[in-house]
Design goal:
Number of helices: 23
Mean pLDDT: 91
Oligomer: single chain
Helix content: 55-70%
Largest sheet: 5 strands, mixed
Number of domains: 2
Number of strands: 7
Radius of gyration: 26 Å
Shape: globular
Strand content: 5-15%
Order of helices and strands: HHHHHHHHHHHHHEEHHHHHHHEHEEHEEH
Amino acid sequence: MTDDSSSRSEPVEPAAGRSAVIAGRTFVALAAVLLPVMVLVSFDYGVTWDELSRHRYGMRVWDFVRGLEPRSAFLETGGHVYPGLFDSLCAALANWIPLNRFVVRHMANATFGWIGIVYCGRLARRLFGPWAGVLGLVLLALSPRYFAHSMNNPKDLPFAAMSVVALYYISTVSARWPYVPPSTAIKIAVSLALALGVRVGALLYLGYFGVLVAVLLVLDRCTNWRRLAGTAMTVAAIAIATLLLGTVFWPWAGGKPLTRPFEALLGAANYPWNGGVLFMGAEYPAQELPWYYAPWWFAISAPPVVLAGAALSPFFTMNRADTLRRAGLWVVAIAPLAATIIMSSTLYDGVRHLLFIYPVLVVLAAGGWTGLLRRLRPPGWRVGAALALAAGMAGMLIFVVRSHPNQVVYFNVFVGGPRDAFRQYELDYWGNCMLQGVRWGAAMARAYGARLTIAGDPEHLVSENLERFPELEFGEGSENRHHFEVKLVRGARHSLRTIVSNPALYRVETPDGAVLCTVRHGPALGELDEDRRRAAAREATLRAARW
């Protein structure tokens, strides 16, 4: 995962040089097209479960940064353990951009997702070559779950993006003295601070950086005490800078920046939530899940082409440096997973809490596929491998397009796709599909020519999505004055079939038929229809009298 100065001194063949130029231009073109596409499609995604609370927290942090709220106001139990960089940025943008506050948040979310995709490609390019960079960018952009999280996940996606940025700059550490020159040290410190400003898991990457430098010192057989002392001071300076800068938008931790981030890290490993989790058709408390919950979720929610490429990566190394890079990436991918298993960490909503692992798997997959294509000698075998790769990416693209905007419910062929995963695993756990149900209600309001009332479950997602539609107003379901009711298909296994089997006016479904949410007839709709029939009858009577 580091510079290898010896490899740069080798002569480059003209054909290889032209290929690298083409790969570089392809990378830039794809990245340039991808940004506006992601920002524009983010408008199609609904408000997710915790967005309103994150927005309110961001507004408070933004007020703190501007000196309008004291640090002591963030000492209450709960959300104070979360950094607020992303949320405060969104709050500031919402004040400046005259659009719906959640639309603004989703635009920012998509931009962070794009940054993660670009740096995933850059990391793959740096470690495995120009075309690996292009492949890494494409694989992550086409990954259905990562793409969907890029639109409206305010917690896990921004951290996943910033963690791959940090990993890229960590990879620029030199294998020779000076291992961390000043320019590199600044980039590493800033990238780690940005990651820490989003989530406390950035401390893991600070640890990776320290271990990497120690390994390089051993491999370089450095015994010069001045160099050892200077390197140790540089690492310490980066650590302190990360903690100080990373807590600027984290009022609680900023009070004691050298200790509180570590307190938060230990607390996050065993978050005190013990709700029900649907897994393999059975219901478990979140703190009592089987040890294989997270590994199995990665196995069924990652596209097969990514899993296959990652599995290939250890077998096509070029030299010792390449072997070390791949081994280092596998450590980065496996260590958090192993830690959650050993510590019996609280997990739910699939593996969204471990989303930051996925870009690393994509980098490994890019290295595995390009290594395979480079090493295969018979042309027929190489063509076959290329076709398998192309088919895998085509399958990802088809799912992303056909399932828009519900790519987050992707399951691979190992469990038969979303339809077969229904009642076995959680599908739309954050309620993204609720926007589509509310939008259908708005279309009906325009058709009726009246302002209609809509209720739903969960109520807060309905009311927050309603902010985009002046044709609708929110109504409490218990008051029985609503025209429509939107129901998210989520809950205990025995209740899911009941929800789906109830009569519905409209259903949000995946292309293979998994129902995500339904819109049902409300009690006031019958009265409205009766009023319309009476009005039509009166109009017909008057017309007949005039005739």
